[in-house]
Amino acid sequence: MFRSNEKETNRTIHRRKQEFGLRAGVDFVLQLHRSVMFIALPANPFPQLRRSEMFQIMSQSTLLHISLLRSFRNILLSRIYKHSVPLGLFQVTVMFSLLLLVGCDTSKFEPVALAPEDMCAYCRMAISEKRYAAELIDSEGQAFKFDDIGCMANFVKSRKNATKTVAYFVMDFDERQWTRATDASYVRSSELNTPMNGGIIAFKDQAKAKEAADRYHGKLIRFEDLFNLKG
Question: Which range marks the domain in which residue 27 is found?
Answer without folding.
Answer: 2-104
